[in-house]
Amino acid sequence: MHKNQADTIYANPLSEVSRFAFDQRVVDVFPDMIKRSVPGYATIINMIGNLAERYAQADSHCYDLGCSLGAATLAMRHRIQAANCKIIGVDNSAAMIARCQQVIAADSGEVAVELVESPIQTVKIENASMAVLNFTLQFIATAERLDVLRNICNGLNTGGVLILSEKVVFDDEPHQQLMTELHHNFKRANGYSDLEIAQKRSAIEDYLIPETLDTHRQRLRDAGFSSVDVWFQCFNFASIIAIK
Ligand code: GEK
User: Fold this and answer.
1) Ligand 1 cavity residues, CB under 6 Å
2) Cα–Cα distance between 128 and 160 in angstroms, integer?
3) Inter-residue contact 203 to 18 (CB < 8 Å)
4) How far is the CA of 34 from the centre of ligand 1 (A)?
5) How far is the CA of 134 from the centre of ligand 1 (A)?
6) Is residue 148 within 8 Å of residue 100, measured between CB atoms?
7) 117 sits in which H/E element
8) CA 154 to CA 40: how far, in whole Å?
9) Which of 136, 144, 183, 237 to mutate to test the pocket of ligand 1 (most atoms within 8 A of CB)?
């Protein structure tokens, strides 16, 4: 098993900051990176387990879409009580899926897990009682997001649930600025320098596209979900629960 390393990817000045990619270098530091960058991440992962205990139906599938190293997969795996469930983790990064295979193999949970290397835009969702998009939709082109959500909603059984966590933006400019500052303070308190914050910011600028909570709520309804609202928020990071 690989030891998780500290994230120092943007610690030194780069002559040119290239677009962020979920490659081997990111895989090696990923648990440290996401914990120090996303306020509330550990709480959200823990609560995904809590929700899996409640919503996973017997003989159904639970999807972890953009599973990275399987944090949400493991949270679901350890809390699902329903019989004969299968968790399907999907990610389009070969490096993520390869490491995730090792993480799952080293875990003793009994619920079956299948990992698929694929874009979530083309993955077939069927017989699902739960789907998780934990900070993944934000990396999909905005024009493709409605189709992704429709595909998930169509594949969910009645009463099935989608957990959608995203970095968000606010229409109110002073509030947007405040949330950005509070997020940067959070990163600084977790040991990131101003240089690291600035270089990471420019690496993800055209890749991670955040939207407002209203945009997300409306799109989820348009995709066919009947009940939609926020269950967690810390600064500009939020998680929505959408029920079919
Ligand atoms: C967690 N959910 O730890 N199709 C499939 N995967 C994708 C796509 C795509 N089109 N685009 C990006 N990804 C995880 C954290 S990280 C969030 C999710 C972050 C994958 C990408 O390879 C990466 O593994 C993941 O989505 C986003 O709960 O790094 O901010």
Assistant:
1) 22, 34, 66-68, 71-72, 90-93, 96, 119-121, 134-136, 139-140
2) 7
3) yes
4) 11
5) 8
6) no
7) strand 112-117
8) 29
9) 136
The predicted-structure confidence for 28-61, as pLDDT tens digits, reads as follows: 899 999 999 999 999 999 999 999 999 999 999 9
Alpha carbon nearest to ligand 1 atom 4, residue = 119
Amino acid at 2: H
Probe residue for ligand 1, chosen from 91, 118, 183 as the CB with the greatest number of ligand atoms within 8 Å: 91
What is the dihedral angle through the alpha carbons of 184, 185, 188, 194, rounded to the nearest 10 degrees? 50
Residue 162 host element (H or E): strand 156-167
> Phi and psi of 219, rounded to 5°?
-65, -40
Which pTM was predicted? Answer: 0.97
At 83-137, the pLDDT tens digits run 999 999 999 999 999 999 999 999 999 999 999 999 999 999 999 999 999 999 9
Give the Cα separation of 115 and 204 in Å (integer): 26
